[in-house]
Amino acid sequence: MAVSDKREVVIEATPSQILDVIADVESTPSWSSQYQSAEVLETHPDGRPHRVKMKVKAAGLIDEQVVDYTWTDTSASWTLVSAGQLKSQDATYTLTPDGDKTKVRFEITVDPSVPLPGFVLKRAMKGAMETATDGLRKQVLKVTKGGT
Predict the structure, then answer these.
(1) Could you tell me how many helices (H) and strands (E) the chain has, helices first?
(2) Do the Cβ atoms of 84 and 64 come closer than 8 Å?
(3) Which of 60, 80, 99, 118 has its Cβ near the most Cβ atoms within 10 Å?
(4) Which residues of 69-88 are buried (b: 16+ CB within 10 A; e: fewer)?
(5) Could you list the residue ranges forming a coiled coil in this record (predicted)?
(6) For residues 31 and 46, is the Cβ–Cβ distance under 8 A?
(7) What are the strands of the beta sheet with 35-43, ordered from one edge?
């Protein structure tokens, strides 16, 4: 059964600064506890990641996933290519400039291929949402301002 969630956060940075942090997928394990490793397999002509292989731990399961990224000036999204524990996964960051800040909306839909109790899936989604918004914000501020 597919589940979806969305969350917004305001980050004191420009969309391009935020997208640069998202694009640095190989450093994601340093600020996201769910990511154990990430490797860029292919890049787009502009150098941003296209196909990425990652090892993710969520809901007590470790999964190796391959995703394809799509980029615009105000968004980053990915679609699952292959995984052991998921049938599908689609996620999007949408960035809206607001003065010297940016409103970041994160949306994700996942469809596990293994049956999971509702509370386990809900806990895994909550952790993913917190990392994707609050964790991203902390990492962006660390990179752009040299602090936390």
Answers:
(1) 4, 7
(2) yes
(3) 80
(4) bebeeebbbbebeebebbee
(5) none
(6) no
(7) 3-11, 101-112, 86-98, 75-83, 61-72, 49-58, 35-43
Q: Which pTM was predicted?
A: 0.93
Summarised one tens digit per residue, pLDDT across range 119-143 is 888 888 888 899 999 999 999 999 9
Classify the C-alpha dihedral 124-148-76-12 as positive or negative: positive
Count the neighbouring beta carbons within 10 Å of the beta carbon of residue 138: 15
Helices (H), the chain: 15-23, 28-31, 118-130, 136-145
Angle of CA points 145, 124, 147, to nearest 5°: 10
**How far apart, in Å, are the Cα atoms of 112 and each of 31, 82, 90, 103?**
24, 12, 12, 29
Instruction: Give the phi and the psi of residue 137 in degrees, each rounded to 5.
Output: -60, -45
d(CA 68, CA 81): 7
Q: Which of 57-61, 67-71, 132-136 has the lowest mean pLDDT?
A: 57-61
Cβ atoms of 57 and 38 within 8 Å: the answer is no
